[in-house]
Write a structure and sequence with these properties.
single chain, 226 residues, alpha/beta, Spore Coat Polysaccharide Biosynthesis Protein SpsA, Chain A, two-stranded antiparallel ribbon, 7 helices, 12 strands, globular
Length: 226
């Protein structure tokens, strides 16, 4: 029987702003990577997990995720985020892939399911939150420029991002050919003119970037320890 969807968790980043080892940093005594994996398990949306690890950390990832009750594939990441994402998507067996950053441990099963349903309908979908703060550019001295960036239609993109696997792999060839760097996976589809739908994101789906984001995640935490 063919596999409908795979979860791809990216844990290969260097985490330089965090100080390294971000995927293994703990929240309520459990690694961020484990919280992400558990959300995929509880969602019931995927038939397997593909975890992209930093080269040399594959055994550590396998040890951390030893109790996850889903088929697990481990692959080594690349130099750039898009290299790691491509490695994970190529290893996935599902018709659809849900690509998630291990730095977002508060992702909910509901958000995972909603992204997958939208990806099935539209071919590609991401969670998005409207920008509510005033946004301005800085000049070369670090001072504010006078013109504010119009917020209408401006959104912040989260993960997981869902795609038909074959469409994403095809789209990734164009940025590779042109040597483009992608900040997220939807950018590959947008680069070739393919539509990407959105679903309402989750304000609690925080991305851990700096060590002081962990206390904020603790404050946002609404799930009991598993």
């Amino acid at each position: 029987m063919s596999l409908e969807a795979s979860g791809v968790i990216l844990a290969a980043g260097r985490g330089e702003r965090f100080g390294g080892g971000k995927a293994f940093a703990t929240l309520r005594g459990r690694p961020l990577l484990v919280w992400c994996a558990d959300a995929f398990v509880v969602s019931g949306a995927v038939g397997e997990l593909v975890v992209v690890a930093r080269p040399g950390e594959e055994e550590l990832v396998a040890e951390v995720l030893a109790g996850v009750p889903l088929p697990l594939r481990l692959v080594s990441g690349g130099e750039r985020r898009q290299d790691s994402a491509r490695a994970g998507v190529e290893a996935a067996g599902g018709k659809y892939v849900l690509i998630h950053d291990a730095a977002r441990p508060l992702v909910t099963p509901n958000l995972i399911r909603r992204v997958l349903e939208a990806a099935k309908e539209h071919g590609a979908a991401v969670p998005a939150l409207p920008v509510v703060d005033t946004v301005r550019y800085l000049d070369e001295r670090g001072f504010l420029r006078p013109q504010a960036v119009p917020r209408r239609g401006l959104v912040r993109i989260q993960t997981p991002q869902g795609f038909r696997r074959d469409h994403l792999l095809s789209a990734l060839e164009e940025p590779e050919r042109k040597g483009l760097s992608l900040t997220d996976d939807a950018a590959a589809l947008l680069a070739v003119g393919a539509p990407v739908a959105t679903v309402p994101g989750d304000p609690k789906n925080l991305k851990i970037t700096h060590p002081n984001d962990l206390p904020l995640a603790e404050a946002l935490f609404s799930k009991p320890p598993l």
